[in-house]
Amino acid sequence: MNCDSLNILGRIVPVKIGETDDGNCGEYHKKAITIIDGLSDEDFMVTLLHEGGHAFFDRIGLTGHIHSTTEEVIVEGFATWITENFDIRFKNEGGRG
Ligand SMILES: [Zn+2]
Description:
- β3 (26-29) and β4 (32-35) form a beta hairpin.
- This protein has a single domain (5-92), classed as 2-Layer Sandwich (Zincin-like).
- It is 38% helix and 20% strand.
- By secondary structure, it is α+β, with helices and mostly antiparallel strands.
- It has a four-stranded mixed beta sheet with strand order 1-2-4-3, covered by helices on one side.
- The protein is built from two helices and four strands; from the N terminus they run ββββαα.
């Protein structure tokens, strides 16, 4: 599964496959998302939704206004329940490689 960008309330956030600084499956850093290679489609989607959640918090100006642990719980829980209940497909053509 692949996705080259997300549209977060009008802000285009690049998504690339690569190494993460801390060895996690994904990271949101400098307004871009990086996801490690080799994840299953489901793990990729959970990771993309999780990191997209951080991008969303940044976009709406909440990053830094709530505790980082609280933000982690919210984005992980949201990513998990979405993927537990829905099959998601990308709107843009670069979305699924
Ligand atoms: Zn996180």
